[in-house]
Design brief:
The protein is α/β, with parallel strands linked by helices. 21% of the residues lie in helices and 31% in strands. It is built from six helices and 27 strands. The strands form seven sheets. The chain has a seven-stranded mixed β-sheet with strand order 5-4-1-6-11-8-12, with helices on both faces. Strand 4, helix 2 and strand 5 form a beta-alpha-beta unit. The longest helix has 15 residues.
């Protein structure tokens, strides 16, 4: 089975961090967003992911490809790279992997994380759509269904028609059929809002042609698409994984669980937590920090902050209050 991951977007809503790192490669408690997505598939699918096809933007350099290749190797999967330019919507993104659309495929957009206690069985369907029951369906694209069978899709319904939101994960038994359908949308210039080509147009046509679509509901659906969402999702995962921390390793400090503290982190005379994620080889002194993401190789001293995101290789001194600063930055007050 192939896993197709469109990730060509620039991640503008998580700037300044996406200026230097594509959004799917940002960490959540020590693990890249995209790797957490892959690990979830490995844990919850009833078959093996043999190849991962990454659809990148044209300016993604070799260092990004190297990180993705290494991640694929860790999970015993082949890495393949395709380019989407310009970015013309979800159907266009999938069409950029036309050469890879054969056999069984899963398409997963790398904006969100999900989890399920159960293994998904995808037998007996032409397609399976991952869905999450939500309180306000008017904010999402939803699947209309009869029992376990999907009969159609509606984008942001203003009247209640379904509370099962599409989370951006799709299985197709026949990749060639998916290729035919997304290419049809583009060849016939079928555009939706914003002048983009939407994958749901291809899905609707498959249903109209008699293909059987089944639902797969997830227990958790966590967004990483904005700075507040990335911060909130990190806090939830830090709490869920609940790392046990030996406070004695950090002289003069109080560690308030839940936190994630990576290897090589030095902490002196601080109060850290709850819901703080600190990546490798960061140093923090004389600070009070909660509900914050601190990336690798950062250096903080005299900082009191909550609700912040601090980039890699960044120096922060004598700062009080919320801050969002990107990689290789320096901020000092006084």
């Amino acid at each position: 089975m192939k896993l197709i991951i469109p990730m060509a977007g620039r991640g503008t809503r998580v700037r300044p961090h996406s200026h230097t790192v594509p959004k799917p490669l940002l960490p959540v408690a020590g693990t890249m967003i995209i790797e957490r997505l892959v690990e979830t598939f490995i844990r919850t699918l009833d078959r093996k992911i043999e190849e991962i096809v990454y659809i990148l933007g044209p300016d993604f350099g070799q260092d990004i490809k190297d990180q993705l290749s290494a991640m694929s190797d860790r999970h015993d999967a082949k890495a393949t790279f395709r380019v989407q330019f310009p970015a013309l919507g979800t159907a266009h993104a999938v069409a950029c992997a036309s050469d890879d659309l054969e056999g069984e495929v899963i398409v997963a957009f790398a904006d969100t994380l999900f989890d399920s206690k159960e293994t998904f069985n995808i037998e007996g369907a032409d397609s399976v759509i991952w869905l999450k029951r939500v309180e306000d369906p008017s904010r999402f694209g939803v699947a209309v269904h009869e029992g376990e069978t999907i009969t159609g899709f509606v984008e942001k319904p203003q009247e209640f028609i379904s509370d099962l939101a599409i989370i951006g994960v799709y299985y197709f038994k026949d990749g060639e059929e998916l290729k035919r359908q997304v290419n049809r949308v583009i060849d016939e210039d079928i555009k939706g809002p914003g002048g983009e080509y939407f994958l749901t147009e291809a899905l609707d046509n498959m249903i109209n042609e008699g293909k059987v679509f089944k639902i797969a509901t997830v227990d958790e659906w966590l967004d990483c698409g904005t700075l507040p969402a990335w911060l909130e999702t990190t806090g939830e995962i830090v709490a869920k994984e609940n790392q046990q921390v030996d406070e004695s390793k950090y002289p003069g400090s109080t560690i308030i669980s839940p936190v994630f503290i990576a290897d090589g982190v030095q902490i002196e005379n601080c109060t850290i937590g709850p819901k703080v994620s600190i990546e490798t080889d960061t140093t923090i002194k004389n600070s009070k920090i909660d509900n914050t993401i601190i990336r690798d190789h950062a250096s903080l001293e005299g900082v009191e902050t909550s609700g912040s995101t601090i980039g890699a290789h960044t120096s922060v001194r004598n700062v009080t209050g919320k801050i969002d600063i990107g990689d290789h930055s320096s901020v000092e007050i006084g």
